[in-house]
Description:
Chain A is of the alpha/beta class. Helices cover 35% and strands 30% of the residues of chain A. Chain B has two domains: 110 residues, Periplasmic binding protein-like II (D-Maltodextrin-Binding Protein, domain 2); 237 residues, no CATH class.
Amino acid sequence: MKLEIKNLTKKFGDKKVLKDLSFTVESGKAFGLLGRNGAGKTTTIRILMQVFQPTSGKVLLDGKPIDYSKVSLGYLPEERGLYPNDKIVDQLIYLAALKGVDKKTAAASIDYWLDFLQMTDYKNAKLKTLSKGNQQKIQLISCIVHNPDIVIFDEPFSGLDPVNSQLLEDVVCEQIKRGKIVLFSSHQMDYVSEFCDDILILKEGEIKLQGNLRQILKNHRKNKLLVKSDEVEKIHAALPEQTEILREGELVYRLKKDEDRAKTMSDLIKKYPIDQIGDLESTLKDIFIEYAE
Amino acid sequence: MQQFFTVFKYEFKKIVLSKGYLISTGIMAIILASVFFLPQLISDLKLFGSSDNTPVALIKTDYAKSETLVQTIHVALPDYEVKLTDKSTEEAKQEVINDKAKFFIEANHDLTEVTEYSKIGFSEASTREVQSIDTIVKNLRQSDLLAEQNLTPSAIAKVLNPDVKINLETVNKNGAASVIYTFVLIYALYMAITFYGSHVMNSVVTEKTSRAMEVLATSVKPNALLFGKIISTSLAGLIQIAAIIIEAFICVKISSANNPDFPVNQIISNIPTQILVYMLIFFLLGFLIYSFLYGAFASTVSKIDELSSAIMPVQIIIVFTFIATMSAINSGNADTPFNVFLSYFPFTAPMMMFTRAIISNVSTLEIILSILVLIVSTYFIGWLSARIYRVGILMYGEKPNFIKLMGAIFKKQ
């Protein structure tokens, strides 16, 4: 399956909140929809979920306008919350039923995911009696209980401890492995780098950067080398203008404009006791700050 | 439609299994049963109790026909044991203080001076006793004075009981009892509309403030969510009202067999069936119209503490309607031009037309017309509320003012 967002524009009154947005996500891949708060991510998601109609543009699935009666979507919103006073199993069955899943299938799926997330003991508890992290897990189940074809995670890792984060990572990986179309929106760039093949950075409703993540990182390679050595002080003393100690055992070497990267690396290795030398790549965080700010 | 039924089923189950619903139904059932059976039960228990419970009236007098006085008082106050006493005034007063007697009457030889002694505020608290004794003493005195004029006993009786026949006839539709049950039914209608309207309001606010709406808005059409919620609540309300009506009729049946003169039986038996049918129709339409408003206004709230100010306009309308209706019943004239207008005005019609249907001579055609006006306006208010709701549920932050809200709902989404 291939989900295509084509030339999406959305106006609220006179305010244009999305400007000609286009991107494609394929089955079994995760797509990172990035941007600062208010950049237009949630509006994009809401158009995709049919909460809003776009002012112009299309949502296509395999080249045809998406037929929501045939494709199911799961959504984990950034602002979490379900029914605090209702029993967990009741509300999960209800939410699955709203997605057209019968009670028996929903019950089996709920049991599977409760077990997967180590929450079986809380099946009949009221939601409000659970800790915040556990409530998040229930919300996660509500997003995937109906086995959706397209899964949208909006800030899935916020507020989770490392153990729960690991469980959630497993769920995301499982969804990708099951061949779902995964749309991932987060400010935690480590997770985006870990899961997403393609990314898009939005600023004020406009695409600022888009493409394959590996390629983007490669294209944003800095003109710097990262040197790992036990004698970084000695190297820095010899080349004070061009180097900068990053931390103990690590040093950054700034290449001059016309300096040959390969030759410099080989010269340095010959001159100094170097354990490792390579390009100092930009992180996604650096790129995000550069484009989204 | 499938989503509507899913929401309907979930919300219906939630409300009828809620503690509030079960407890309120139980309490209403108990109160209703108490109205019928508690007085009977209390008097039955009295029968089994000792005669010590019978109140005693002590009478000290030099009046020549003291036996007649005692007997007459006993006839007027049959629940009292009336005794002549020759104790001193102080001793008799002591009996009252010690609860051995409920009251003590001291009368002089020609009944021109009578003093009644009781414990606390007897004269204010027991008007029945005071009035009875007052009348008896005055009648005996009159009779004595007439006897002094050498009139025959039959002439005296004729003077004291002139053969004037006074007929009382109530000219409104259902007689005097209707005023009592109109109050009860209107109050019940008001309570039911506000109780179930608040339920819809709280349900919307909980979904919004708990942020469950974020998921719901992307899973279900707002109309299915709003209508499923409101229609399930109205069904729960109808079931509760119907259950109470059925219980009332069962109570009347049982109670009539044991105690046919019990006034509550007569009042309830006097309620015409069509009035109960009107009650169900006006509850349904009144509830729907107000619930749509409650739901729509509640959807604009982001925090629970903004709720009371958001729904203030609805509260004002409903309280105004209640007061206007009560004034109409009190004045006994529900057909003033203003009241007639209110009985066709959508927000006030459920209560005002219902009141007029009971206490005034409104034709069936007028009632049907009011119901039709209500159906059309309920449809319109439902449509408008669905639009407000659709916009409101996704609005967070500062509560929008009316103009902004209207602008937003008529803007193409």
